[in-house]
Design goal:
The complex is a heterodimer of chains A (about 110) and B (about 110). Chain A is mainly β. Chain A has no helices and 11 strands. In chain A, strands 2, 4, 5, 9, 10 and 11 form a 6-stranded mixed beta sheet that branches. Chain A starts with a strand and ends with a strand. Helix content of chain B is about 0%, strand content about 45%. Chain B has strands at about 5, 10-15, 20-25, 30-40, 40-50, 55, 65, 75-80, 85-95, 105, 110-114. In chain B, strands 2, 4, 5, 6, 9, 10 and 11 form a 7-stranded mixed beta sheet that branches. The chains are: A mainly beta (about 110), B mainly beta (about 110). At the A-B interface, strand 5 and strand 10 of A face strand 4, strand 5 and strand 10 of B.
Chain lengths: ~110, ~110
């Protein structure tokens, strides 16, 4: 099975940087995904890592260390619209995703 | 339509009743999934299908059944609903296999079982 941990809540100021950590213990690994979910809406894809290192996509970056079972999502130049839940998900060898409980980020003016 | 649609958007259901949640995608994805999302527990996989004609059990399959008669449709049935099945249900789809295949999610169905 999969055990995926991420903080429940984080608060940051508009324009700041926030880092959301995700640790995982899995029986198989075939990539790690980050999704964004606004309240009352469906999750939407943000990033994907399968090799160690940093993937940058505009204001969002995601890092993976497979040996440590660790990933983080970095949100830079925070905007009010970034207030949402961020979901860490690990894909197993059968291409099924297991999700963490999500981190709710609140951006304050 | 473009993407994934789900119906109904929301439903209030009496315990013991049968209910089918509908999911349709037009992206020709071969894999489809059903999740439930509960506060503090995140998304949990109920059932999945890697291709038409095949299905598999996820993390929380009890009380639910699915069928995959064709590529586009993946209905989820609650044979006899119980209050613990009150949740938000998301359908998703993806290309099966390969290294970079994100899942696309439908808008969700909010189900309340009384």
């Amino acid at each position: 099975g999969q055990n995926i941990d991420q903080p429940t809540e984080m608060t940051a100021t508009e324009g700041a940087i926030v880092q959301i950590n995700c640790t995982y213990q899995t029986s198989g690994f075939n990539g790690l995904f980050w999704y964004q979910q606004h309240a009352g809406e469906a999750p939407t894809f943000l990033s994907y890592n399968v090799l160690d290192g940093l993937e940058e996509k505009g204001r969002f970056s995601s890092f993976l260390s497979r040996s440590k079972g660790y990933s983080y999502l970095l949100l830079k130049e925070l905007q009010m619209k970034d207030s949402a839940s961020y979901l860490c998900a690990v894909r197993d060898g059968d291409y099924k995703l297991s999700f963490g409980a999500g981190t709710t980020v609140t951006v304050r003016a | 339509i473009a993407g994934i649609t789900q119906a109904p958007t929301s439903q209030i259901l009496a315990a013991g009743r049968r209910m089918t949640l509908r999911c349709t995608q037009d992206m020709r994805h071969n894999a489809m999934y059903w999740y439930r999302q509960d506060l503090g527990l995140g998304l949990r996989l109920i059932h999945y299908s890697n291709t038409a004609g095949t299905t598999g059990k996820g993390e929380v399959p009890d009380g639910y059944s699915v069928s995959r008669a064709n590529t586009d449709d993946f209905p989820l049935t609650l044979a006899s609903a119980v209050p613990s099945q009150t949740s938000v249900y998301f359908c998703a789809s993806s290309i099966a296999g390969g290294s970079y295949n994100e899942q696309f999610f439908g808008p969700g169905t909010r189900l309340t079982v009384l």
